[in-house]
Amino acid sequence: MATSSQLLIETGIISLGRTALFLLSSQYLRRSLYQDLRHLSSSSAPLSAGYSRNADNYNELDELPAPATTPLTPSSANPFSKFAGGGNPNNRSWHSTIATWTFSLCFSESCTLFLLVLSQALGLFSERGRYLNWQISLGFLLSSILLIAPLQQCFLLTSKTSKGSGRRRLLSHLILTGLPYSVYLFVISHVPLPANMQHPEFSTSTLARLVVVGTIILGLLAGFGAVSAFFTYFQFSRARRETISEARILTSEQALSRVRNDLAQRQRQLDRTAANASESQGGFFSRMNPFSSESESSVIQREIQGLEALEYHMSRNLEYMQQRRAESLFAQTLQGKIFLWIGKIFALYCAFRVINSIINIVHPLTSSKSVSTPDLVAGLLTRVFSVFYPVSEKDIAAASRQFSLLLVGAIILSSVRRALRGVTGALKVTSRNTAASFLLLILAQLMGIYLLSTLIQMRTSFPSSNTNIEQINLFETLPQYHVFGPLWDGAFLASVAVTGFVRWFDEKVNGPGLD
Questions:
Q1: What's the domain range around 265?
Q2: Where is the Golgi pH regulator conserved domain (predicted)?
Q3: DSSP string, 153-218
Q4: pLDDT band at residue 177, thresholds of 50, 70 and 90?
Q5: Residue 271 resides in a domain
């Protein structure tokens, strides 16, 4: 039995490790990942705004257009403007700092959980010390994923809907934030628990609800990544196999430049029409024909909308051709050929994973104490690994499940960038800092859910021991993995079916393009 002083010392040592991981993650985010997310959010920005600038110095990926509700006055003139998401996009705002802290907290606590599992296997620290810090890290991680990150996301999404100025705008913003957040809390508290879980505690039921939602999300992302990898490395369509020449890219760039010039010209014409209408307002001829200026403006606006749609389609095709040109040049090198073969092997594994999930759905495991069967590829990798690092026969299945989870993580990782680009495009977030903060919060949640799923799978490798009732096993606080296996397979197959149909239909209608 550990004494209070020993427990305090062990908690202090583990807390120092938490702090070090938190600081390392924060430094990495500030220097690298956050800037990448800002660039990713800008690449998915809508192209339908901001054409009043000169077409000669226009750059579609330079920065996002300013939101219509953002005042043109400096943020320093209003001390509350920073709460509405305004200000210079090049400066780090308060929400980017909090998003960085949230991600770092998820990372540090997830790593602490793994370190505590390792210390349990090695016999480091006392059982009470490990269990206390396990509960602390698990509580912080669940709070970050379920409470802190969603609250920030609701605050960011409602930043454009609040009206007024100063304290009044902040108050209305907080009220608007509370509405979707309350709905979210109600929904997450009513997520059905698996039928196999009987009378769970509050912490266990909360974790189980998170894992239910997380399993569905990870399954959907994995299905999206599997289909994307298969379409990327196996070019079935003739248009995808053709070589893009430099002259074709140059012709497309010139055509896109002409469309942008026409668009800027129409925008200036619309501004002049609006100015002339305001000057002639109240005159005799305007009273005799009040619809002349409005009809002219409507015609120009329809032309602008058509040019915007054409500009978006042409820029998407140009980006696709540039990407295909770069890929074809890279594929001619030795490094490119090796990378292509690795990609094809990975795509074949994705196809095999689909077949494996179908088998799991058609022939589910009937035993309640059974766990999911690892796929054949993961088992083969485990056998190869056991040649260099001996693994006992009884641990082969557990190690295969960990290899399978790592491969699933690779599939999910391959789809995250495309998914995040789609999220920013769907939400129409117009500030790069706001979009990057929102994406960072999503990444924090995905990382925490994936690492929790890894720990739940690891429970099968460390079965509970009943020889000593007083012995504390950290994995006893986690739900069993076999409860969530069929849920993941169902979400994965549903995502594969929907994504595959959408990709096939899109290429049939619009031709191949960027993912």
A1: 247-281+289-323
A2: 203-270
A3: HHHHHTTTT--SSHHHHHHHHHHHHHHHHHHHHHHHHTPPPPTT--S--HHHHHHHHHHHHHHHHH
A4: confident
A5: yes
